[in-house]
Specification:
Layout: H1 22-29, H2 35-49, E1 56-60, H3 68-72, E2 77-82, H4 85-95, E3 99-103, E4 120-126, H5 135-145, E5 146-157, E6 167-172, E7 177-182, E8 189-192, E9 205-208, H6 211-220, E10 223-231, H7 242-252, E11 256-263
Length: about 260
């Protein structure tokens, strides 16, 4: 299967603010999140998190705040943190009555004077960890913010099957089988994504790491995984290969992965 060549590098620099794409992204996703947020990612996160009334939850890479209403409705005290001032401004406008939103680098939370160590019962990365670099700093920040026994829930694009611009669907005519092709996996990659809005005024970057990087990164910060969820897509594809797509994408090959880890 042919695909467009793209320059990909091993990550060396920190992630950047999404300010350039904030207005486009919040408009594309909508105030309540995209259909992937609503149908898959948020339900999976809430199931793994099992938030209790009165708990304090830190949403890392909170974007324009789509998770906040779901947690607030369960009586949770929510703090959202994101590097983009524009996304935080939108979050405050849309969901400020549900949560407190702070502009900050989630890989360096210890440097903030508005947050305290061990102040939260839980922390979350909702489809944000793959946009944050370095991973080690993000996980260290999450562990720093959690009390002993606190839990961290990550929902992300599945690192084994959804390598940005280095994986895709294929069709085996002989076997009448839809398959997932993965071109690169073990290498850490910083992948520039397609320019937003069809205009080359700004683009985001996605950071791919193999699964072992997440498992070892969590363990290095005293976070022990106790639950995993792997989520296939919930939508069907029309066309001559729809049946094969239904089996592969909606039953067998996951789109997202959810991890829950507990701080020792």
């Amino acid at each position: 299967m042919a695909h467009t060549a793209v320059k990909i590098r091993t990550p060396r620099t920190s992630s950047k603010s999404w300010d350039a794409v904030a207005r486009w992204y919040s408009g594309w996703a909508g105030p309540n999140g995209s259909r992937y947020h609503r149908r898959l990612a948020i339900p999976a996160l809430l199931e793994l998190l099992a938030p209790g009334r009165g708990e304090r939850v830190l949403d890392l890479g909170s974007g324009h705040g789509v998770l906040a209403p779901h947690l607030a409705q369960r009586g949770v005290l929510v703090t959202g943190v994101d590097l983009s001032p524009r996304l935080i401004s939108i979050a405050r406008r849309l969901h400020g009555h549900f949560a407190r939103f702070i502009v900050a680098d989630v890989t360096r939370l210890e440097s903030l004077n508005v947050l305290s160590a061990a102040a939260f019962d839980a922390a979350t990365f909702l489809l944000s960890i793959q946009d944050i670099d370095p991973l080690e700093g993000a996980l260290k920040s999450a562990a720093w913010a959690l009390r002993t026994g606190g839990r961290l829930v990550i929902v992300m694009t599945h690192p084994c099957f959804r390598v940005p611009r280095q994986s895709g669907w294929g069709w085996d005519e002989k076997r009448a089988l839809r398959f997932r092709r993965v071109d690169r996996y073990l290498s850490r990659l910083a992948v520039p994504m397609q320019p937003y809005d069809g205009r080359r005024r700004g683009a985001t970057r996605s950071y791919h790491r193999p699964l072992e990087a997440y498992v070892e990164g969590l363990a290095a910060n005293g976070l022990v995984i106790d639950a995993i969820r792997e989520l296939p897509a919930a939508e069907l594809e029309a066309g001559p290969h729809a049946r094969g797509f239904r089996t592969a994408a909606c039953r067998e090959i996951p789109l997202f992965m959810g991890l829950r880890a507990v701080k020792r």
